[in-house]
# Entry
Amino acid sequence: MPVLTVRFLAIAGGAAFVLAALQVACGAPPEHDIHLPGGAPVAAVSLPVGSGFNGAITPTVSVADVRCQIYRRTVSPTCPDDASLARAYWPELQRTRDVVFVGLRTRPSCFHMNVEYLAEEHKVLFHCHHAGAWLGINPVVGAAQPADVTDVVMASTRGIAAGRLSLAREDRIEHWIIDLTSESGLGTVTIP
# Structure
């Protein structure tokens, strides 16, 4: 093989290696739902609270209880009757069965969410995740950051056995190589 061809191949191979390394360091993998071994997908929906609600919510299986918790944190320490609360928060939700309500801080940290049930641990795991690069531009110090917002998430418990159910949040940043994860407990509820 002529020397010129060998040099060309060496340069092309080196350039390909540098481009691949840059992709791993500066690029992000495509977004997708998180699925753990043995996990079963759970249907979940974020319920609008309005006005950038930011407060702690104790997990519950009662829509009346979650309505009252929000009212106590935003309006008054004393809750009105259930009918008044229902008119103020999600009037389309009447008697709910087979669901759990949790409060999740979703902004600015939860870009994408999916929920799974882990039967062996009798736990519902709320995955808050996004894809990110290992190297990136950090926000300017002192720049305005988005305010924290808590969303009420209603997740189905249909098909989950009765008893105490653990609820947890997993925060995950996916990279091409090695994801960064942390898990925090949200509480427990009793499934009737």
